Every structure is written in structure tokens, then in C-alpha cells.
Amino acid sequence: MIYRVGSAAIDPANFLLTRDGESVPVEPLVFDLIVYLLENRDRVLTRQELLDNVWANRVVSDTTLSNHIKSARQALGDDGQRQVVIKTIHGRGYRFVGNVEEVTDGDAVGRPAYGRSRLPVSGVSQILVIVLVIAALFAIVAGGRNLIFPPDEVIQSLVVLPLKDLSDDPAQKYFVEGMQDALITRLSQTTELRVISKTSAMRYENTSKSIPEIARELNVDAVIEGSVLRDGERVRITAQLICGSEDEHLWARNYDRDLGDVLTLINEISMAIADEVRATVNHRAVERVAERRTVEPKVHELVLQGQHYFDRYMFDKSLDCFQEAVELDPSFAPAHVGVAGTYLVKQLFEWTPDAAFVPEARAAALTAISLDSNSAGGHAGLGVIQLYFDWDWESAAKNLSRALELMPNDARTRHAYADYLMVMGDLEGSLEQVEIGLLYDPLSPMANNVVSFHRILARHYDDVIAEAQKLLSTRPELLPNLTDYHEALWLTGRFEEAFAAYKASWGKDEVLLLAMEQGFSESGYLGAVYSLAEALTKRDPEHEGFITIAKLYALAGAPDKALDWLETAYTYRHPQLVHVKAMPVFDELRDDPGYQDLLQRIGFP
């Protein structure tokens, strides 16, 4: 019996497979797999059934089966994206779904597919056996990796999806999220893989989207799924690696450890994944991680709880957790990193004119570095302070660069380093850095906003407008939030559109809307923006933002008032002053002696 599937023909008796009349070389086990799927095409075959029958009870991994399924599809002219011949039934197994025509050996359509072979059947089989023996030898030399039949796709990027909490206890959510965060961190620190940040990964919590959909949206090659079960002082983590484009399981493993060994467990999982995808491993980073001591479970849990609250902008609760962890174990660097980071965001979000939270943040960051010179968070926190509050460019560059060496997927640290390049006058380099950050955190609103902001600084107004209009075509309700789009419209002379955008943004406040409309009726578009700035100054300028008011006066053609508000910002050493030199809205102030003096006092090179 010969099976025809599209342009392919399979002859089990003679171990032959052709496509379009040409012989297709396949491994014996791949051929056996195709035949087994064909002969049982009336039903779904589980992975275990395939392993038991095709591999005859030999011990092989799920990865082996997935690779053979891929090879079988290729031999039949199929692939994991289309799955028109061999279909993956998610969570169950595989089924042969291609249209099959059965013909006998003597049928008139039967033989041209095999007539081109220059070797008898036995010769073909012998050649295949020789090739497979050589492949096996190469696999042994290469530490078990098959170099003759390598995977078609190299995995260079992945995302760790939110892990499932098998305890069904909402109180354990912080712990499960912490395990996801730790795995992302370890993979980022110890390999050259591009690992998507937790911010973007969390968008897929409880999602109904398929693995290929997620992989396409995040532009990654592979996806890690898993689960966490905490039972008293024990924790069990299941992790599985899935090919993003084909939804094929490449690797899976269960881990069971004492709670005190959970950090070691995360290291084991990350190294196993790195080995499976053949990622380049930073062995120095692995050694650094291995050197870190164990920590008491209570201390580690407090840090995880602190991060949980931090991610939800509950900064006071976050700070309480981190500080309690420090009290219990003053030598645990991550707890100090948490204190430093929380004080920094409190300073930026809750804005105190005297920068009251900065000394606390600085002390915590320095302590973290003194305890662990390879603390990415410690170096990042100190670098941020030196950049935005000290205006110490050289020291900021040193610490931010070191933080990125230790944690390249941290988009927020990359944003700060981009601002350092901006201060140095490298606007294109600055833009490149935030665009790299977006690759690591593509779904983060902050990361996308930072890219738009740096495009404004680099004078790429058309790019800002194009991206915003593309977004607004499906999400028009976002118009009030796209402040860089509003500015780009104004700076390109599209005043009518810009005025409509400003009203959408500021006009939710009736007083500000009335001010803009009165200003417009008196002096047109410039009058509208001038009146908006005037209205904001009558409120709490510290809350509204010194730089925002200065920008509005500059857009309205009032450079003197713009400079006055920049001077006010300087009085408070406002962190946004690091952007002032590059901001195009202040271009008309470039030759003003007062503006030049301000730039010199800030210390711009």
C-alpha cells in the first residue's frame, strides 16, 4: 500500500518517501512516526502513545518527539504554522489531518516517484544508516546535541508567562509572581537571550490567546509556561518550554525543593532552559549567582511581597515590607535595593521640593552595592540618583552601564542610560537605547511613551505622528494621553489638530477648557496655549509641573516666561531639567544669555 498526501507519497514497505517525484531523505524514526500517524489518522494520538509505539519503550524526552514531529512535517511539505497535514491538538497530542489517497503497488499512478533513485532500496537504507551513525558520533562529541539534524530555528528570545498558582490561594499570588520575576531575572543575567520583561509578560495573565499569537505580539521565538505549588515549607515548580511559532513543547521538567532552596532552584531551571535552547551562557554571571548565599524564607517572602505591592503602585506597603526584610537580615542586598527603588519612585511620584526621599534612596543603594558589588538594582538606583538629582554625569554613566551589564532586559535602567546619552548630546544614540528597551518591554505604556519622547528630542516628528495615528485608528479614546503626539503636531505647524488634541487632554477640566477657548477667541492658537499656561500657574505649580508650564509658555511664544519657570525648576533641582537642553520647544531660547547660563549651572557638557 502506498499513501499519497498532496504532492507526497509514502511507501511503508520499501521505506520510501517522495515529494513532487523527488526522493526525500528522512531518519528511520521520522519515517516510522509518519507511518504510525497515517495508519491511525482516525483519532488523536497522545504523546505517550507515540513514544511507546514509535520508540518501543526506549526512554526519550518530549523534546525528541517534538523535533521528530517537526521533521515529519517538513518531509511532507507542512510546517507548524499551517499544520495542514499533522495537527497539534493542544493538551492532548497529534493527529494526521491531511487528505490521504491509498493506492496499490500496481496502480498506474504508482511508480514515477521512485524511478529517479540511483540506488536500490537496500542501498538507500544503508546510506541512511551510515549517516545516522555519523550523526550519533557527532552528537556524542557535542555533548549530546545533534549537529546533523539541528533545529531549523534558533531560539534567541523568549517570554516567561505568568505562572499558574496551583494552591488556589490568593494570598500566595505574591509568591507565584516572585518566582516568575526571579526566573526572568536569572535568564536575563546568565544568558544572551532577549527575555521579555515582567511588565509585558503580565499582560497575558489568564489570557485566552494561543502561544503563536503571544509569540507574534511579543516577537519572541519561545514561550515558557509553568506552575507553582507551595505546600508548607516545600515548593514545586513545573516549567515547560514551547516553540512560539508552532506551539510545540520542546522541554518540560518538575522541580521539588525546600522553601529555603528556592533561589537555587530558579538557577537550576534557568540553566536547564539555556542548555535546551543552546543559548550563549555568561559563565561569569552564573558563577556570581552561584556565590550568593541562601536566605531565610521569611526575609525572601518579605522582599517578594514588597515587589508585589511595588508593581501595583502601593509604595507605602511596599516600603514597609522591604524595611522589615532589612531589619530581619541587614546583609540581604535585594532588600536594600527594594528600599532604594521605593524611595526613588516616591520622590518622583509624590514630588517633594526638598528631595526628601533621595538621601534615603542613596543610602540604601550604596548599602546594596557594598553587600553585593554585582547588584544590578543597587547600581541602577545609584545611577538614577546621580543622573537626575546630582547631575554627576560621569558617575551616573558608570553605574548605569554596570547595571545594564548585569541586567540587560531592564527597560527602565536603559531609559535612564538613554537620558545620559541625551545629556551628552547623542540624541540618535539615546533614541536607539529606548528602542532597544521597547524590544524587552513591548507592551509597557511607559516604554512606548519614552520612545515617543525621545523621538521628539531627536526631531523625528513624523515618526511620532505616524505611530500615534496608527494607534488612534483602533484606540481613539487614547488621544488625551498621547502628549508627545500633541507636541509633534504643534512643532510641525499643524495647529488646528494640535489644539483639538490639547482640548482633549486638558479640556476635561472645565476651568482649563474655558481658558483655552477664551485665549483662542482673543489671539488664536498661540493665545489658547498661553491662557492654558496662565491658568496652570494659578494652581499648585509644584503639582502641575514647572517644566510643563515652561514648555507651554515656550510653545505660546513667551520665551521670557518660559525661562522664569525653568529658573523655578532649577531652584528645586527638578529632575526633568536633564531634558531641557535637548527639548525642541526651547529652541528659540538657545541664544538667550539667561538660558545659556542656566545650562551652564546645570552642568551640561
Which features characterize this protein?
Rossmann fold, globular, 14 strands, 605 residues, alpha+beta, 26 helices, 6-stranded mixed sheet, Arc Repressor Mutant, subunit A
Radius of gyration: 30 Å
Mass-distribution shape: globular
CATH superfamily of the domain at 157-291: ABC-type transport auxiliary lipoprotein component
Biggest sheet overview: 6 strands, mixed
Give the proportion of residues in helices.
55-70%
At the fold tier of CATH, the topology name of the domain at 157-291 is Rossmann fold
DSSP strand (E) fraction? Answer: 5-15%
How many β strands by DSSP?
Answer: 14
CATH architecture of the domain at 157-291: 3-Layer(aba) Sandwich
Summed up, the helix count is 26
SS content category: alpha+beta
First-residue to last-residue Cα separation: 80 Å
In terms of per-residue confidence, which ranges show pLDDT below 50 for 5 or more consecutive residues? 106-152
Q: Quick check: average pLDDT?
A: 84
In short:
This protein has 605 residues and is an alpha+beta fold. The protein has 26 helices and 14 strands.
Plain-language structure description:
The chain is built from 26 helices and 14 strands. The strands form three sheets. Strands 9, 10, 11, 12, 13 and 14 form a six-stranded mixed sheet that branches. A five-stranded antiparallel sheet has the order 4-3-2-1-8, covered by helices on one side. The model is unreliable at 106-152 (pLDDT under 50). It has helices at 28-39, 47-54, 62-75, 121-141, 173-190, 198-201, 211-218, 262-276, 283-291, 297-311, 315-328, 333-350, 358-371, 376-390, 393-406, 411-423, 427-440, 445-457, 461-472, 483-491, 495-506, 510-537, 541-544, 546-555, 559-571, 593-602, and strands at residues 2-5, 8-11, 16-19, 22-23, 45-46, 86-89, 93-96, 101-103, 157-160, 164-165, 194-195, 222-231, 234-243, 248-258. It is globular and about 90 Å long. β1 and β2 (8-11) form a beta hairpin. The termini are far apart. Among the domains are: 2-117, Winged helix-like DNA-binding domain superfamily/Winged helix DNA-binding domain (Arc Repressor Mutant, subunit A); 157-291, 3-Layer(aba) Sandwich (Rossmann fold), CATH 3.40.50; 507-602, no CATH class. α14 (376-390) runs antiparallel to α15 (393-406). The protein is α+β, with helices and mostly antiparallel strands. The longest helix is centred in the C-terminal third of the chain and has 28 residues, at 510-537.
